[in-house]
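Z., the sequence and structure:
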Amino acid sequence: MVTSSPNEGEEKEGPVIRDKRRIDPETGEVRERAGESSPAPEAPADGGAKATDEEVSSLKTQLAERLADLQRLKAEYDNYRKRVERDRVAVREQALGQVLSELLPVLDDIGRARDHEELTGGFKSVAESLEAVTGKLGLERFGEKGEPFDPVVHEALMHSHSTEVTETSVTDVLQPGYRIGERVLRPARVAVADPAPDSGADEPGGEPGESNDEPGE
């Protein structure tokens, strides 16, 4: 009679191997241990929201200050650029004016020769070329008979009264004036006339409506 062992008929279990590695070698993810739960997020401490609002407000203030600095810097640069351009133009006009001022006596001689019909031949060609070049450089001649007298651009060398004018006017141009843009190189030297006083204006008993005041010179 064969006696069976109490454990006979039961499957024998082999050794149990437990993988306790923290990192899963296949997925590379961190494994959670049995009975171990992920930590719950900590609740914000008292005043956390207030601290966040203060940080945002501080950042906005700093941003506004930086923006104001950039705007101020840009305005200063724009003003500097305009000032440099204005100075450059002024220096150019000044240098050009000095050169052209030396040529004014030559242009006067050309004008007198033209008035006396002596501008002929090769001299005429050279004179016209010189006038053309100075004109391209911005030199402008001014001063005409009959125009209103302007002390800014006219220099009165002779004065009279005339019944043919209603305001102080140029009656003769003794020497033309020249300018570059708004800069006057030489005023026009002219003879001017004021309106003639009304007859009887000096009489105390003049007709009604007549003025006893002479127009100012």
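The longest helix spans residues 48-115. Confidence is low (pLDDT under 50) at residues 199-217.

Let me know what you think.
H.
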